[in-house]
Amino acid sequence: MTSPVPSQPILDHCLDAGFAASGIVVAGSSRHEPSLNAWLESGQHGEMGWLERNVDVRLDPRQLVPDARSVIVVADRYDGSPDVPLPPRSGRIARYARGRDYHTHMKKRLHQVSDRLQSMYPGETFRACVDTAPILEREVAAGAGLGGIGKHTLLIEPSVGSWLLLGEIVTTLAIEPTGSGEQIDPCGSCTRCIDACPTDAITPWSVDATRCVSYLTIEHRSAIDPSFHSGMGEWIFGCDICQEVCPHNQPTNLTASTPTHEAYAARTSGRDESGASFDVGAVLDWTEEDRREAFTTSSMKRAKLDMIRRNAVIVAGNYLQAAEDEDLRNRLIEIAGDETEPALVRDAAIEITCRS
User: Fold this and answer.
1) CB 224, CB 273: distance < 8 Å
2) 8 close to 172: Cβ distance less than 8 angstroms
3) Residues designated catalytic
4) Where are the alpha helices (DSSP H) in 88-187?
5) pLDDT tens for residues 233-247?
6) Which of 7, 343, 345, 349 is deepest in the core (most CB within 10 A)?
7) What would you measure as the largest C-alpha separation in the chain, in angstroms?
8) Cα–Cα distances in Å, from 56 out to 53, 136, 144, 171?
C-alpha cells in the first residue's frame, strides 16, 4: 500500500478555489451509527424520508465511493452579522439562504478542485458532494479538524463560529489527515441554544426536526401544528436563533476580520433593502411566477408556492397577535373563505382567523 500524499498542496488547491477552510479525514465508518439509527427509529426526521434511504452509505463514505481512502472537507463562511431592524410585516430568511444557492456555487468550485487533482492523480477517483449526497458532513468536518459539533448539532469553528457551509470530495487517494482524531467539545456547560429554541427542539447534541422551525418552514410539506405557530415568530424560511445566541458567533475583532464568501451576500430582488426578509403581505399574494422570480438563484427554491404562502399566513398571524393590522387581517379572512385556495394555505388561515 502506498504512503499517503502530503495534505498541504491539496489544502492549497482548496484555498485557491476560494474556500475559507479545508481539511482531510481518513474515510471510515461513522462512530454515530447507534445514535443515528435511534433518531430515525423515533421519527425525529419527520417528513424527510430521504434520510431513511442509503443509511449504510451515509454511515461510511467507502460505500459512496468504492475503495475511498480519504475525504477532503471544505467550508465556506457566510455572513452571520446581526440583522438591522427589519421593516414592519417582515418574514425573516435564514442567513445561509439570502445569497446565491450554495449547492450550485460550492459544487462548481469543488469540481474545479477535483479536476485539478484528477490531472495530478489520473488513476484515482474524486467525487464532489454538497449537502445532497448521503454523507455525515459535520462528522467528517470535525474529523478533519475544522471544528467541533455543538449542542445544536452544527459545526462550530471556535475562532469564527458556526456560520459555515460544508462540502466534500470523497476520493480513493490516500492523503495525510489533518485532524487529531479527537472530538472537541466547543460548548462546555453552555446551554444558550437549548434555552433559546422557541419550539424546544434541541437537547444536547440532538435536534428533533419535527419541532425545529427550520424543518417546519423548509422541509415540512403538510400542515404545521398550531402549537408551533407562535414559535415560528417572524421566520418565513429557516431559523437562525440557535446560532444567533451562540457565544462563538458573537461579534469580535476576529470574526469581523474573517472573510465571508461574496456569493452569499444578501440579494435584494423581491426583498427588503437588507435582503433579510420578504414582506409577508406580498407573499400572501404570490403567484408561481412571483415565487420563481424571487427564488431563481436561491436555495429557497426548494420551498414550493403553497409552503411559502402557508408560512406567510402563520407569520402574518403572529404579527396580528402583537399589533392590529386591518389590511393583513382582512387578507387572511379572504384566504380562509376562498375555497379555491390550496388546502395547505387556506387551513392555516382558517386556524388563525378562528383563533383571533
Assistant:
1) no
2) no
3) 131
4) 102-120, 137-143
5) 999 999 999 999 999
6) 349
7) 73
8) 8, 11, 21, 18
